[in-house]
């Protein structure tokens, strides 16, 4: 329990620091982008100069996208849990998912009929899925298939009794060795190298699952692919047909 508390405090501190830095950095990048756009209007019509300008703009935009991820990671406090239809959420973002992972990897979805709604922040869950899908893509440099599925089940691991739904993202990629698997959810842990990985993807998913009174569970073996499972409580006040972003906000009980 002591290590769990320490880990939670560490996450909290890192979250606050990250949020502050990302926020300031984002403002700086917005100023840079603004100046570059002004510069574009004044620049003589020279293709070489325009290419340099485009490079600078792209770099600043990539930086801005990164700060958005960091802000999303830090903004764990303002979750708006609601009844979310997982199948609807995933089909609603399938274009975004496919565009984010590129053409080399296929996405398959498997959702049973009559799956109960999950109690979770829909926007953050979309971000979590995006993180998992990008990780799966990165683990399949030769291409492959990502399977996004959902099922209902009992309480996983040490969670309180109750009804839970599991949203899983499985790949057929390189997998993780035991040491990587053990550390994968730590903030800033990455094996992707400087400038490629932030190490914030899985810690964001982990944070969302914990704050939603659920759990992120990872299964992986080298060569056998990876399965990430987000376990979430079934929505407590299911009313009719919940849609992502449109259902009532239900107060959380711990
Ligand atoms: P990042 O993707 O920026 O490295 P993450 O927190 O998302 O940060 O992941 C941390 C590490 O966990 C990755 O660098 C990688 O080593 C490992 N990992 C995550 N997802 C997968 C996956 N689907 N297959 C193999 N390894 C993975």
Can you put this structure into words, describing what you see?
- With 254 residues, the chain is α+β, with helices and mostly antiparallel strands.
- The chain is built from seven helices and seven strands, in the order ααβααββαββααββ.
- The strands form two sheets. The chain has a five-stranded mixed β-sheet. Strands 1-3 form a two-stranded antiparallel ribbon.
- The protein is globular and about 65 Å long.
- The two termini are 17 Å apart.
- Residues 239-254 have low confidence and may be disordered.
- It binds adenosine-5'-diphosphate.
Element order, helices and strands? HHEHHEEHEEHHEE
* Chemical compounds bound to the protein: adenosine-5'-diphosphate
User: Structural class from helices and strands?
Assistant: alpha+beta
Strand content: 15-25%
Using DSSP, what is the number of strands? 7
Biggest sheet strand order reads: 2-4-5-7-6
The number of helical segments is 7
Bulk shape: globular
User: How is the main sheet built?
Assistant: 5 strands, mixed
Percent range for helical residues? Answer: 40-55%
- Low-confidence stretches at least 5 residues in length (pLDDT < 50)? 239-254
Radius of gyration: 20 Å
Short précis:
This is histidine kinase. The protein has 7 helices and 7 strands; from the N terminus they run H-H-E-H-H-E-E-H-E-E-H-H-E-E. The protein is α+β, with helices and mostly antiparallel strands.
Key words describing this protein structure:
single chain; 254 residues; alpha+beta; five-stranded mixed beta sheet; two-stranded antiparallel ribbon; 7 strands; globular; binds adenosine-5'-diphosphate
